Every structure is written in C-alpha cells, then in structure tokens.
Amino acid sequence: MTDFMTALPVILVQPTCPGDQRAKGVQFQLTCNLCRESHKTQVWLCFFVLSFLSTYTCAASVSGKDTEDIQTCLKELKGNIEKSDAMLYAPSSNDVEENCKIMSLRCYMLELRMVIDEENIFNEFADCIVDFNESRLPEVVNSVGCPPCEAYSLKNITIFLDRLNNLLKEMTVRLNT
C-alpha cells in the first residue's frame, strides 16, 4: 500500500487568454498509481481541468488599464450611442455583488455591442469595445450565484451609460490598488 502515492508525474502548461500574449502558468500533478492503467481518461481529465483553469484565469485578466481604455472609448462613442432609443439591461452598482462585477461588465458589454451594431457605428472606438469583449471577457465567467443579465431592470441609454461608467470607475479603482 506504500506505492499508492509514490509517483508524481507533472504536467506543465502555459495557457494564454485569447488576444493576450502573457502566458499563465499552471501546474497539475497526478499522484495516483492505480490510475495509470487508464491513460486516456487521465489525458481527457487533464485537458478538461486545464481548460477550466485557463477560462477562470482569463476571467480574472481584466485590468485597471483595460477599464480605463473602455472609459475612453465610451467617451468617444457617447454622441453616436445616445442616438439609440433602445431599452437595455443596466444593473446599478448597488445591485451587483463584488463577486459578480465581471459578470455584470459582461452584461453591459453585450448590450453595448448590440447598440453599436444597431446604430451601425464603425470606427476605432467601436472596435475597442468589440476587441475588449472578445479578448478580455470570456464566454463563460465564474457566475455562480450571480443573476443573469435579464434579471436587471431595463433602462434608457442615458442611464445605461451612467451606470456602466460608474461600474468601470469602481472597477478601475479596485483593480489599480
């Protein structure tokens, strides 16, 4: 029974987030000698776990610089966006718990992309929003316990932009400290 935990094969990978050249180091150790017979199962389990860790790591890769850049892009897009008469899901900062900030930002970015598409806005500031959404915000974020976007109230574009800017300012301060 002493052989049970003796082997420690190590798998080292460095996944990167989409659009991010910084490698994220992950070390995963397999310690069960009894599982050696099922190599295929181990390999698939490794890929599954590492994929999950990579997604989770990417979810946390939003920086204060990113939120500052989005604020700049929003300022430049404001005139074009305010023409929209769309009603959008807009959680207030009071509605969003700390662990749901990234999920809330994802909701805002999806709504904003919809407005950009509907208003046919094509410029580098619209590209800034699209690029941020695709490279910094993963499709799946750790949203356990967070309400879906549709749970928040619908607001006009002015309130939507105010609340989004408030969230971005709050996140910028928190991420820069």
TrEMBL record:
Q: Which GO terms describe its biological process?
A: immune response; neutrophil activation; positive regulation of cytokine production; positive regulation of immune response; positive regulation of T cell proliferation
GO terms for MF: cytokine activity; cytokine receptor binding
Highest taxon of source = Eukaryota
Task: Please state the protein's primary subcellular location.
Answer: secreted
Q: Reply yes or no: does the keyword Secreted apply.
A: yes
What is an example of a Pfam family matching this protein? IL15
Q: Which GO terms describe its cellular component?
A: extracellular space
Task: Provide the protein's localization.
Answer: Secreted
Family membership: Belongs to the IL-15/IL-21 family.
UniProt name for this protein: Interleukin
Give the organism, scientific name: Oplegnathus fasciatus (Barred knifejaw)
